[in-house]
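Researcher: Re-running this chain for the archive, since the previous output was lost when a drive failed. Same request as before.
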Amino acid sequence: MTFNTFSFYLFFIVTVVVHYLVPKRWRWIWLLIASYTFYGLSDIRFILVLLILTALSYLAGVLIGKQKNRQARKAWMLISVVLIAAILILFKYLNFLLGSLSALMASAGLQWH
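Model: Regenerated C-alpha cells:
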C-alpha cells in the first residue's frame, strides 16, 4: 500500500477514527495493531522486521530502565539506537549494496551471485 492510493487514505481514516474511539489506556495497542497491519498489507515479510525491531526496542527499554548509573543508561541507549538503525539501513539498502558489489566484482572479471 502506497501513500498516494485510495486504500491508504481509507486505512488512515479508519485508523484515526478508531484511535479516538478506543479508551486512552488501550490506544497504544490499537496503534501497534494498525502499524503491523499497514506493514503487512505492503509486504508480509515486513512484519518479521517490525517484530524484531519491536522486540529490540522493548528489550532496550527494559535494560535502560534497570540501570542505576546514568552512564550505563546512556551506553544502552546508544547501543540500541545504533543496532536498530543498522538493521533498518541494512533492510533498506541490502539489495542496492549487493547489486553494487556484484557490479564491482564483474568489472574486476569476477562472478558473484
